[in-house]
Specification:
Layout (H helix, E strand, L loop, with lengths): L4 E5 L4 H4 L9 E2 L2 E2 H11 L4 E5 L2 H8 L7 E5 L1 H13 L7 E5 L3 E3 L4 H4 L7 E8 H10 L3 H7 L1 E5 L4 E3 L6 H18 L3 E2 L6 E2 L4 E2 L4 E2 L4 E3 L3 E2 L4 E2 L4 E3 L2 E2 L4 E2 L3 E3 L2 E2 L4 E2 L4 E2 L4 E2 L4 E4 L2 E7 L4 E4 L2 E7 L4 E2 L4 E3 L9 E3 L4 E2 L4 E3 L2 E3 L4 E2 L4 E2 L8 E2 L11 H5 L5
Parallel strand pairs: 1-4, 1-6, 4-5, 11-14, 12-15, 13-16, 14-17, 15-18, 16-19, 17-20, 18-21, 19-22, 20-23, 21-24, 23-26, 24-27, 25-27, 26-28, 27-29, 28-30, 29-32, 30-33, 31-34, 32-35, 33-36, 34-37, 36-38
Antiparallel strand pairs: 2-3, 6-8, 7-10, 8-9
Helix pairs in contact: 4-6
Length: about 400
């Protein structure tokens, strides 16, 4: 398939199946079947895609293709002429075109795993001569009918299988994931346990990255070289810079810089961005926060709607109090500031560059740069209190 173009027809089969969306957009391990098919075709060398799709499903279908994919989308009524332009740009050396007419999967053939018997079964994956498209246009015939009539279908012997119900996908689920992981391993990704690791077909994992047992990468997650992800880590639409380590944590729609350390048991939520060499430690929850280079949120903290400067250190149990039940407010912590343990920063509030906040303080006013802020009651002692009021053992 190297260098080939592919034309994918996305039929609206909802009326026939009763499913809420076309079967090609049905989820397999959280990703649409179309995304798995595009991944398999790309791995086989298909470089350019033409998608025939109805407008209600276009956005969901486009999301199944990597951002850098050469993709043209058209409605069925306009497809014939636009496909001619699409194929002409591929060059004369391409005589064959891959055509997908309906739900199917494509696997690397393994007779032992698939245990195929009997005559080969044709699939919805076809090989069509480029001249057939021109013939359909000239004859003003139904494009799909002409292509099906003048094609050579791929069969189960080629690893191509038609799908007639979503229940069938359970048979292919482990095979598709395993094939995807094998391709990552061949590219230089170190995968510790193929049985407990899942990588979405739209995720990108760089060579020299390490995926430990229990790693789940969803959506358009990007893992940089030298990263160590896991064990037991879930990431969705997240970006990890080179050398970042994420241990037993969850990361959603966040971007982490290079050589950061997250976890264990951290919860990094949408809108979080970090610089390089930052740390988000154990039992820390972060949301909608920008964290500067070298900053450390060590443990047991909640930080939200906050600007954290470079080399800031938050002590154990530090919390940004960002919500008054009506509105959320932002906190700013300047470069090189130190926030002690069990500090509450009641937003909106700022801590100046190089300032210190004493442990146990509740800060409601801005702290000037280089100042020490103390906001806690003075300690006092009531003499002999324990002797008078302490509960005595029976």
């Amino acid at each position: 398939m190297a260098g080939l173009s592919a034309v994918i027809f996305l039929p609206d089969d909802t009326g026939k199946t009763g499913y809420p969306r076309p079967m090609l957009l049905g989820n397999l391990m959280g990703a649409p079947l179309l995304a798995w098919l595009v991944d398999s075709l790309s791995a086989g060398g298909v470089e350019r895609f033409f998608l025939v799709c109805r407008p209600p499903w276009e956005a969901a279908a486009r999301a199944c293709f990597p951002d850098d994919t050469q993709l043209v989308v058209a409605e069925e009524s306009q497809a014939s002429e636009q496909i001619q332009v699409f194929l002409s740009a591929a060059g004369d050396e391409q005589s064959d075109v891959i055509v997908v007419t309906g739900p199917c999967v494509l696997l690397p053939y393994d007779a032992e795993i698939l245990a195929l018997d009997g005559a080969p079964e044709p699939s919805n994956l076809l090989c069509v001569k480029k001249t057939a498209f021109q013939a359909a246009v000239e004859a003003k015939a139904d494009l799909l009918e002409v292509l099906q009539d003048q094609s050579a279908p791929y069969t189960d012997r080629d690893g191509a299988f038609s799908i007639t119900s979503l229940a069938q996908l359970t048979d292919f689920q482990p095979l598709l994931n395993r094939a995807h992981l094998y391709r990552l391993a061949e590219a230089g990704v170190e995968i510790w346990d193929f049985a407990t690791t899942y990588v979405d077909p739209m995720a990108q994992v760089s060579p020299q990255a390490v995926l430990m047992p229990g790693t789940i990468l969803r959506g358009k997650t990007v893992v940089g070289p030298g990263c160590v992800i896991g064990p037991n880590t879930y990431a969705e639409d997240a970006v990890f810079g080179a050398g970042t380590v994420v241990n037993s944590s969850q990361v959603f729609q966040a971007t982490l810089g290079q050589n950061c350390h997250v976890g264990p048991y951290a919860y990094v939520r949408a809108g979080t961005q970090t610089g390089d060499n930052a740390k988000i430690g154990d039992f820390v929850e972060v949301r909608n926060t920008k964290i500067g280079d070298g900053a450390k949120l060590a443990h047991l903290s909640y930080v939200a709607d906050t600007e954290v400067g470079k080399n800031v250190q938050l002590g154990c149990g530090a919390v940004t109090v960002n919500y008054d039940r009506a509105k959320k407010y932002r906190t700013t912590i300047g470069d090189d500031a130190f926030v002690g343990a069990n500090v509450n920063l009641v937003a909106p509030v700022s801590v100046g560059q190089g300032a210190y906040v004493a442990a146990g303080s509740t800060i409601t006013e801005d702290v000037p740069p280089l100042a020490l802020a103390i906001a806690r009651a003075r300690q006092s002692h009531k003499k002999e209190w324990a002797g008078k009021f302490k509960l005595k053992k029976p």
